Amino acid sequence: METRLRHLVANGEAQSVVVAPVPWFPFKNVRFGEYAKFAQTPREEMRNGIRVLHPRYTLIPKLGMTSAPLLMAVGARSTLARLLDEGYEFDLIDAHYFYPDGVAAVLLGKYFNKPVVVTARGTDINVIPRHALPRALIRWAATRTVVNVTVCQALKDEMIKLGIDENRIVPLRNGVDLERFQPIDRVARRHELGLHTFTLLSVGNIIPGKGHHIVIEALRLMPEVRLLIAGTGPQRSAYEQLARDAGVAERVTFLGAVPQAELKTYYGAVDALVLATEREGWPNVLLESMACGTPVLATNVSGIPEIVTAPEAGVLMESRTPEAIVRAVEKLQGNYPDHAATRRYAERFSWDETTTGLLQLLEHSAANKRERSCNA
């Protein structure tokens, strides 16, 4: 989301202020865990030259899923009003993630008489609509936007299944930052990390849905393969124990949280990125790895087959099992692509095309709203 916005405003044809509400919490002490991070969030900050405002909203325990859209909208309303009072007469609201953020954005759009564009990104369409009230609110919001954007065709198909008019949905894929993610001195970095055998990298939150545990289990069937895991999450201790129980702990390295600036050095050092995810919209980690010249192994779900379409990109796994990972590794090893070819494949996914399409879509949406207002 941040990368898309950064590219959108880079040439000066668009400008933006970000309003990113966070739940209100009174205590900053770290012993309160994730909740303390909400309290530590500044009220205002600058990120990549973009003004970011963080109004607070009340999140009611046990009722959070059902009440969050309305409470988020109420919490952000005064901030948007202040922007207008300051003279920042914005043309539209560009929201991300359909629930609760997208629903809240539509409520705010109605209040301020501004057009709204919402981008669906994955779980907001693949998982959350399993609950009746959120599903109804997503449908309600999707019929009141000027347009709905999805990051892949697969998400558009899911939105159509929810009963949303396909003519109101535009797939607009994410790109990859080709300047940030570039090939490195692979040999030197492998030497620094002590990588002497075929090595996989798994990136993402350490939760069951990302599938790190499946890759760990697959190592039992691949005695010469190593695994690096980049990410944090509640399952880390359990997965460390899983590695010990499986007898592969000496071949699994938990890297913890890795900044993007450093992550490229791991992409560039390993032999393949593995993504054994249960569901995704458009996982950027795949393109980030390819941009560094490293092919990928990934489950054949959601938007992933729209990313991995050629041998130089990598291999789609036939199922989400340790055995399927083993077969995918063997297939990749049997026809391992040239790193330069993998990089060239990633270059097809630059942000330029997406940024141009998004700018045209937003301009058209704002112009249509202005025209309707003039004719009213």
Q: Percent of residues in helical segments?
A: 40-55%
Q: What general form does the structure show?
A: globular
The low-confidence runs, each spanning 5 or more residues with pLDDT under 50, are none
Trace the largest sheet across and list its strands: 12-11-10-13-14-15
Summarize the structure.
With 376 residues, the chain is of the alpha/beta class. The chain has helices at residues 2-9, 34-40, 64-85, 98-112, 123-126, 132-142, 153-161, 186-193, 212-218, 236-245, 260-267, 284-291, 304-307, 322-334, 339-346, 351-375, and strands at residues 17-19, 22-23, 44-47, 50-53, 56-57, 93-96, 116-120, 147-150, 169-171, 199-203, 226-230, 252-256, 272-275, 296-299, 314-317. The strands form four sheets. It has a six-stranded parallel sheet with strand order 12-11-10-13-14-15, sandwiched between helices.
Index terms:
376 residues; alpha/beta; Rossmann fold; 2 domains; six-stranded parallel sheet; four-stranded parallel sheet; 15 strands
